[in-house]
């Protein structure tokens, strides 16, 4: 467990109070670690991270590894999880608590209850629940009542995409207390230069990265690909229980020469594969966000994403990618054709993708999060703007000029 925190009134180099923040996360993730380290590097945050558990086996199977360097952390003990959460909250009543989710982790729900009862400042950082997941009427009622109770007392919300904004607003969260958020990665160390003057190849290299499960919609992509020009090829990175079914679909559609399954790859190799592609496609039937979108934009690779992905929020139609109607192979096929038709103009789309990707970098987002926390607390009167929204607005203005 984390050691008790003693109240500090130390100032940052900017002459402002150091923000004392405890973040509650379900498990370590490589992308959240990027954001935690970036927060520490701002010099404005005394950060402590509490994990409910270690990385689960299904995540390790798709290549996740522990990333615990560069920030202070602790794990709740398996046998005394709830008691640990209560003790920690009571010891750290004077810190700002950012809690990932409302009810997914029982220990976090208990922590939120104690935080609310003792009048501590807390912020909810969460996706919207998958609307396709079946829940009993009783469970939905309990979750709604609990969610509304927490919503009334939260200092602020960090909703992951428009879906979360809409869902938590339905629970009573105030729109003015919401600060757009998402998932973020650090700027890749191998930034690939844009070949703006290069000739556009008639062959299009597409890539899919994700679990091979029904929710990710790879079957929709394969169906769309089957009736596009033979010059569009696809690399599939990832594993999952539906790989045999997808491989059978590839054979049935006659796509054996155009689709390659690469399985699970290390994170660095995935990033390198994305950088070599012309377009990344995320055809999910549901994704609270979709981190591969960030990874593609960061290296100037435009994205085709379904409108049921939270990360569609960072795609401006035709400017840095395309958004298609989920589960609609014909709509996806249309945008695959658009990619092929753009020719040399695709380099302009790539440049716009890179600019938005830079605005989604963890080191860019960390100061925004600090500004959000200061605004929530009343320390700052100026409401911060999400850097990716600013980048999209500027890009749109540039396109319209």
Provide structural commentary:
- The chain is α/β, with parallel strands linked by helices and 401 residues long.
- The protein has two domains: 19-185 and 362-393, Rossmann fold; 204-359, Rossmann fold, CATH 3.40.50.
- Helix content is 40%, strand content 15%.
- The chain has helices at 30-41, 57-61, 81-91, 106-117, 137-153, 161-170, 218-226, 243-252, 267-276, 291-298, 329-342, 346-359, 362-376, 387-400; strands at 19-25, 45-51, 72-75, 96-100, 122-126, 156-159, 204-209, 232-237, 259-263, 279-282, 303-306, 321-324.
- It has a six-stranded parallel beta sheet with strand order 3-2-1-4-5-6, sandwiched between helices. A six-stranded parallel beta sheet has the order 9-8-7-10-11-12, sandwiched between helices.
- α4 (106-117) links the parallel β4 and β5 (122-126).
- Mean pLDDT is 89; it is low at 1-9 and 193-199.
Share in β-strands: 15-25%
Q: Which CATH class of the largest domain is shown?
A: Alpha Beta
Instruction: Give the strand order of the largest sheet, numbering strands 1, 2, ... along the chain.
Output: 3-2-1-4-5-6
Q: Quickly count the helices.
A: 14
List the helices and strands and how they pair.
Blueprint: E1 19-25, H1 30-41, E2 45-51, H2 57-61, E3 72-75, H3 81-91, E4 96-100, H4 106-117, E5 122-126, H5 137-153, E6 156-159, H6 161-170, E7 204-209, H7 218-226, E8 232-237, H8 243-252, E9 259-263, H9 267-276, E10 279-282, H10 291-298, E11 303-306, E12 321-324, H11 329-342, H12 346-359, H13 362-376, H14 387-400
Parallel strand pairs: 1-2, 1-4, 2-3, 4-5, 5-6, 7-8, 7-10, 8-9, 10-11, 11-12
Helix pairs in contact: 1-13, 3-4, 7-11, 10-12, 12-14
């Amino acid at each position: 467990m984390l050691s008790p925190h003693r109240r500090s009134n130390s100032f940052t180099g900017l002459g402002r109070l150091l923000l004392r923040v405890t973040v509650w996360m379900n498990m370590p993730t490589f992308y959240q670690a990027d954001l935690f380290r970036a927060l520490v590097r701002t010099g404005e945050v005394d950060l402590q991270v509490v994990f409910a558990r270690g990385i689960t086996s299904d995540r390790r199977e798709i290549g996740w590894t522990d990333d615990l360097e560069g920030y202070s952390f602790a794990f709740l003990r398996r046998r005394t999880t709830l008691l640990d959460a209560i003790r920690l909250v009571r010891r750290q009543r004077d810190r700002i608590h950012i809690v990932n989710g409302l009810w997914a982790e029982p220990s976090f729900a208990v922590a939120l209850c104690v935080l609310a009862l003792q009048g501590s400042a807390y912020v909810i950082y969460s996706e919207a629940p998958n609307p396709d997941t079946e829940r009993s009427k009783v469970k939905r009622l309990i979750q709604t009542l609990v969610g509304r109770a927490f919503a009334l007392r939260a200092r602020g919300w960090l909703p992951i995409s428009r879906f979360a904004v809409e869902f938590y607003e339905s629970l009573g969260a105030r729109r003015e207390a919401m600060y757009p958020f998402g998932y973020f990665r650090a700027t890749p160390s191998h930034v690939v230069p844009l070949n703006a003057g290069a000739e556009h190849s008639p062959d299009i290299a597409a890539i899919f990265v994700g679990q091979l499960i029904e929710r990710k919609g790879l079957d929709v992509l394969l169906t769309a690909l089957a009736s596009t020009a033979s010059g569009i090829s696809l690399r599939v990175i990832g594993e999952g229980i539906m790989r045999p079914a997808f491989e059978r679909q590839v054979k049935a559609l006659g796509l054996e020469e155009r689709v390659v399954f690469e399985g699970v790859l290390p994170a660095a190799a995935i990033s390198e594969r994305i950088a070599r592609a012309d377009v990344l496609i995320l055809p999910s039937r549901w994704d609270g966000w979709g981190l591969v979108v960030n990874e593609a934009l960061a290296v100037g690779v435009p994205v085709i994403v379904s409108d049921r992905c939270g990360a569609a929020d960072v795609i401006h139609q035709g400017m840095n990618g395309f958004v298609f109607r989920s589960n609609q192979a014909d709509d996806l096929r249309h945008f695959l054709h658009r990619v092929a038709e753009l020719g040399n103009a695709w380099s302009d789309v790539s440049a716009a993708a890179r600019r938005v990707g830079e605005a989604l970098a963890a080191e860019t987002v960390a100061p925004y999060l600090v500004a959000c926390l200061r605004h929530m607390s009343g320390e700052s009167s100026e409401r911060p703007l999400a850097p990716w929204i600013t980048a999209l607005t500027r890009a749109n203005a540039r396109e319209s000029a």
